[in-house]
Amino acid sequence: MSTRIPLTIEGNITADPEYGTAESGLEYARFSVAVNDRRLNETTGTWEDAGTVFHRVTAFGRQSRNVADSLRKGDTVLVSGDLKFTNYVDKQTGTTRESREILADTVAASLKFTGVEVNRSPRVNGPAADATGPYSAPVYETDADLHTLN
């Protein structure tokens, strides 16, 4: 049984992302995000850590390459995706267990405490946008060409 719940989290990456390619050719990046819960202690007036929750995250496709190339341990990220719960049987004990993982739709560096440089891909306009090879030029037919076909 599998249940998915949409969510967004903000936290710190706990280790450099692991990048790989599945047998099917699908690229993926796996990493863990620690989300710290901070609470104001009303007695002392100071902020205190109230617990940390660790989430396993998997990103796919082109985004997985960008995650692996751009993000490192300690970076603060925002992750938006589906929280997936999966039941499995532990091979050693035979008991049913539950795992959870976020299947990321979007992974972004947080700008709360640092800046980020964005490298954009160039946009293509005009005939080059429809080019299928190294060079594409329009083909024009003239009346003379049409008369020679008859």
TrEMBL record:
Residues 123-150 are annotated as: Disordered. SUPFAM superfamilies: Nucleic acid-binding proteins (SSF50249). GO terms for molecular function: DNA binding. InterPro entries: NA-bd_OB-fold, Primosome_PriB/ssb, ssDNA-bd. It comes from the Bacteria. Keywords: DNA-binding. CDD domains: SSB_OBF (cd04496). Pfam families: SSB (PF00436). Homotetramer. This is Single-stranded DNA-binding protein.
